[in-house]
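Q: How would the structure tokens look for this protein?
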Amino acid sequence: MGRRKIKIEPIIDKHNRFICFSKRRAGLFKKANQLARRGFQIAVLAFTESGNAFVYGSPKVEEVVERFLHNSDATDGAGSSKATESLSKAPEDCKEQEQTEKVSSESAESAQQKDVSRETKERAEDGEDSWNSLSSALTESKHFWWNSSVENLSLKNLLQFKSALEALLTSVRIKADSLLVEQDFLAGFT
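A: Here is the predicted structure in token form.
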């Protein structure tokens, strides 16, 4: 009695696909962690149907993804991998590449920048709103910006506040998932 060999094929039913992903996610990140502990540079990016990102990377997701997207880690001509070549030939409007760039940019934003989305930052730089001044004023007064009163905000600022909260939620989910993966990995040794 050995294991049955399963056929690798796409799971069509959305509910079954979600269950399969949620069951196998921890194992995937555990294997990535094991490879990272053995000295490999690795990045795992998984996106759910709803667009939630689950990310693991060593040393950092941004560094590994950046290296493959921009070929900044030049190896000798014969030593370049097929993965590097395929990533460099990928079309720029590819959905996976856009999601990878979105996750790497969101992960790179620090807590001091209040995890404001890229569009919000561009609008703030153009002088279209006062979101940065509001968040910096709240930071200086030692209040957390997400606890501020929303009653006096305009519609534009409410939408920016909403997108900032969504970006914060995404970064919290990513951090929580990475901590869970580490916890599961360490539990395997006890």
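The domain at 12-108 is CATH 3.40.1810.10 (SRF-like).

The CA atoms of residues 69 and 87 lie 6 Å apart.

Upvote if useful.
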